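Working notes for the structural subgroup meeting. M.R. asked for a predicted model of this chain before we commit to crystallization trials. I am recording the input and output together here so anyone reviewing the notebook later can reproduce the run.

Input as submitted:
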Amino acid sequence: MGIEQPLQSAIDALRSASQILVFAGAGLSAESGLQTFRDQGGLWEGHRVEDVATPEGFKRDPVTVWRFYAERQKRLLEVKPNPGHLALAEMERIFPRFLLVTQNVDDLSERAGSQKIVKIHGDLLTVRCTHCGTEKRVEAYINPALLRQTDDLPVCGQCAGLLRPGVVWFGELLPEGLIERALLFATQSDALLVVGTSGFVSGGYGLAEAVLRAGGTVIELNPNQTHLSALAQVHVRQPSASALPAIVQSLRHS
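Returned structure, recorded in C-alpha cell form:
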C-alpha cells in the first residue's frame, strides 16, 4: 500500500531540506494521554482560563491554581512519550540543523530524547519564587491532596517567598530571547513542520511567515484545519503519532 500524497509531499520537502524547524503544540502530547487544556468552551479542564492561567487568578486564589498545576504534574509522571515524540527526537539526529519550538510545558519531548528544544511557554516541572525570582526544577510532583490552604503551598528555600508554577500565563511576556531565537532559525530554514497546534492563541508567532519569506515549505500535521492551515503548502490530515514515524522511516531509508 503506497504512501498518501500529502504525506509523500511532506517527505519530499524534508528530504531536500538542510535545516528543519518544528513548531509543536498540545496535540503532540495529547496522544500520550495528556489533555489539551483548553476545550471548545474555552475552559481549561473545567476551569476558567482567568482563574488558573493568569497572574491575577494566582493572586486571588493561589491554592486553586496550585492544585490545578499539581494535578498536571502528577498526571505527567503517569504518561510516556508517544511515537510522535520519539520520531521528532530521531529527526533531530537525522538533521544536524534542527530546532523544536514547543508550546507544551510537559517534558515528554526531553524524555523521548530531544535536545535541541525551545520551550516558549515554560516548564510544568519547574517552580519560580514570586519574591526573589529563584527558579528550580522540582524533584517530585507536588501532591495536590496536600494543598488545602495557603500555608500548604510550596515556598522558596532562599527567601521563603511563595513559589509559583514555572509556566507562562496569559498576560505575561514570553521568556526573553526565545521567540527571537526561534524566528532567527526560521529565517534560515528550508521547512517548517507545524505539529498539533491550532495557532489560535499564538498565531504561530510569525514562524510560518518567516519560513515562507525564506523560500521554505510549511507542512501542517494535524487531523483538523487550524488557524495556520492557510499558510501551509502541505496538509497532512493525520495524527502526529502516526504521521511523524512514517515520515522518519522514509527519511531514514532515503
